[in-house]
Amino acid sequence: MANRFGIKLQNRLPSLAGVYPFSAPITTTNSVIYSYKKLRIVGKRRAFIPRRVVIGIGISVWSQFMGMAANVGGKSFMASASQKSAIEQVLKNVEWPEQFPFRDEDFQRFDESPDTLFYEMPRFVTHIDDQAIAALTKYYSEVLPPSNAPGVAILDMCSSWVSHYPAGYKQERIVGMGLNEEELKRNPVLTEYVVQDLNNNPKLPFGDNTFDVITNVVSVDYLTKPLDVFKEMSRVLKPGGLAIMSFSNRCFFTKAISIWTSTGDADHVMIVGSYFHYAGGFEPPQAVDISPNPGRSDPMYIVYSRKIATA
């Protein structure tokens, strides 16, 4: 039976203003200080922040969009969503609505100041723990083209001072695109870099069919124009090229989009999958749970797709 993502999308509640009467756990990243009423978060603490709705934002993707989804293994999909096998079923046989189901408000953020200001100072830190990094690096070692493969070009989107590729990994061209030049300069895997705010200008400064692979690590949740960016990704990928979006449950809370901060891990898989689907030009997206030690380390999820190969 198909996963009926669209069963309630076109009947979203018309008025969602206010704050949910319950809380949802999130994890902040390094150097985040966020105040909400009497709550203060500093550094790498786990805290409980009330789910919030801003101008009609914040409805749970699962409760509203997946209410009549197919069961997985005879169990409720929601009840088993924390299990690896269930996470990897999220994007199986989805019946997507005809139109992109999210609204402009879903991509608003608490902090709408220019991202160039937020990222003006370099952060030479990692935003997931060592076990999650190791899991991502292992995954890359299995799916990236072999090191020093002739003619291979890779784009590391939303890059920083580290890309988490396998040790010693090299290609003729590895382009980093990010917001802080000092971080990009320190990244040893890059052969070149571009400083660009994708939320201000989602147009990628590359020709059609340029890259074999695009990677994005724990940054897809900050994109305020995701369809524009994913359409550009499709354009610059070579036919059959691979796009890998990886994410955890950490974020700079004030800079992440509303639909992300008000939903959970399984929702995030569906949200990223929808970007691939509605951008066009991609094969059906797939999800992989590479969480190394559930409950004791950061979770790690992959949503990937390939550009449709031309005949």
List keywords for this structure.
311 residues, alpha/beta, Rossmann fold, 3-stranded mixed β-sheet
Overall mean pLDDT: 77
Shape-level CATH architecture: 3-Layer(aba) Sandwich
Q: Major sheet: order of its strands?
A: 7-6-5-8-9-12-11
CATH superfamily membership: Vaccinia Virus protein VP39
SS element count, helices: 8
Order of helices and strands: EEEEHHHHEEHEEHEEHHEE
Describe the main β-sheet briefly. 7 strands, mixed
What is the name of the CATH topology? Rossmann fold
Strands, count: 12
Structural class estimated from helices and strands: alpha/beta
Instruction: Determine and state the CATH class.
Output: Alpha Beta
Shape annotation: globular
Tell me the fraction of residues in β-strands, as a range: 15-25%
**How many separate structural domains?**
1
Helix content: 10-25%
3D structure, described in words:
- With 311 residues, this protein is α/β, with parallel strands linked by helices.
- The protein has a single domain (83-307), classed as Rossmann fold (3-Layer(aba) Sandwich), CATH 3.40.50.150.
- The protein is built from 8 helices and 12 strands.
- It has helices at 61-65, 84-87, 115-118, 130-143, 181-186, 226-236, 258-261, 265-279; strands at 18-28, 33-36, 39-42, 46-53, 153-157, 173-178, 192-195, 211-217, 237-247, 250-251, 286-289, 301-306.
- Strands 7-6-5-8-9-12-11 form a 7-stranded mixed sheet. The protein has a 3-stranded mixed sheet with strand order 4-1-10, with no helix packed on it. A two-stranded antiparallel sheet has the order 2-3.
- The radius of gyration is 19 Å and the shape is globular.
- The two termini are 30 Å apart.
- Mean pLDDT is 77; it is low at 5-82.
